[in-house]
Amino acid sequence: MAFVNLKNVTYKYPLTDKPALQNINLQIKEGEFVAIVGPNGAGKSTLCYTLAGFAPHFFKGELSGTVEVAGKISNQSTLDEWVLNVGLAFQNPFNQISGAKYTVFEEIAFGLENIGIPRDEMKKRVEDAMTLTGITDLADRSPYSLSGGQQQRVALTSILVMRPKLLVLDEPTSQMDPIGTREVFGTIRKMAEEGMTVVLVEHKVEWIAEFADRVIAMHNGQVLLEGNPSEVLTSNVLIKNGFGLSRYTSAAREAKKLGIWKKEKLPVTLDEAVEGFKK
Amino acid sequence: MRERLSFYIKRDSVLHRLNPLTKLTLTMALILIAFLSPWYWTPHFILLAAVLPLSFAGRVFPEFIKTALRLILPAATFLFLMQAIFQPVGETVIFKFYFLDVTRESLMFAFRNATRIFVMVSSFTLFLLTTHPSELMSDLSRRGLPGQFAYVIISTLQILPQIQAKAQTIIAAQRSRGLDTESTFFKRAGAIVPLVGPLVFGSFIEVEERAIAIEARGFTSKNLKTSLQEIADPSFERTVRWVLILLIIISALLNLWPS
Question: B4, B64, B120, B245 — which has fewest CB within 10 A?
Answer without folding.
Answer: B245
